[in-house]
C-alpha cells in the first residue's frame, strides 16, 4: 500500500474486556478518513485512487483504476477505470464480529475498460466471512459506461451503458454461494456488438431492457 497523504479522525473510542472479544477490539462514535494518490497491490491486482473520502455515511472514491497484473486462465482479468464511485450508507454496525450494513445508493460514473472472464469454473467458495448477510442495497446506478467483456474468447462490446437496479439483496446459501435478487431494473445501451463465432456478428443500437 502506497499513499501520498492520509488523514484519519476517530472520536468516542471505547475499549474494554467486552470489545476485546470482537475482531475490531474497540468501539467508536464517528470517523473520517481521506487520502490522496493511493496505490494498493496484491499478487495479482493493482488498485489506484486519485482520492478517497470515507465516513460513517458515505464512501467517495475518485479516478479509480483496477487492473489485473497477471494473465491467468483460471482467474477473471480486469482493466477498468471509473471517474468516481459513491456509496451512500443507510446503516452499519458490528454484530457477532461481522459487519451488518444496509446501503442506500451506489453510484458508478463513467466506467470504461475490459473484463475477461475465466473459461474454467472456480472450485473455491465465496466465503465472505466479515459480512453479515443479507446485504441490502436500495439502489445501484451505473451511468455513461463503455465496457468490453470477453468470455471464452468471444468479445462483446457495450457502449453508452446505463443501468439502474432497485432493491438488490445479496445473500449466501449453506454452500457459501452468493445469491442475488432485485425488485426491478432498467438497462439502456447506445450500441451492442458481439462475435459469437467466426462466421457471424451481432450488433444493435438504442437498446432498452427493463423488468
Question: How does the helix and strand content classify structurally?
Answer: mainly beta
Any idea what the radius of gyration is? 20 Å
Helix fraction by DSSP (H/I, runs of at least 4): under 10%
Shape: globular
What are the main properties of this structure?
211 residues, 11-stranded mixed β-sheet, mainly beta
Question: In words, what does this structure look like?
Answer:
The chain has 211 residues and is an all-beta fold. Helices cover 0% and strands 70% of the residues. The chain has no helices and 11 strands. The protein has strands at 2-11, 30-41, 45-55, 58-68, 77-95, 98-117, 135-151, 154-172, 178-181, 184-197, 200-210. Strands 1, 2, 3, 4, 5, 6, 7, 8, 9, 10 and 11 form an 11-stranded mixed beta sheet that branches. β4 (58-68) and β5 (77-95) form a beta hairpin. The radius of gyration is 20 Å and the shape is globular.
Question: Helices and strands in order, then pairings?
Answer:
Elements: E1 2-11, E2 30-41, E3 45-55, E4 58-68, E5 77-95, E6 98-117, E7 135-151, E8 154-172, E9 178-181, E10 184-197, E11 200-210
Describe, in short, the structure shown.
With 211 residues, the chain is mainly β. Helix content is 0%, strand content 70%.
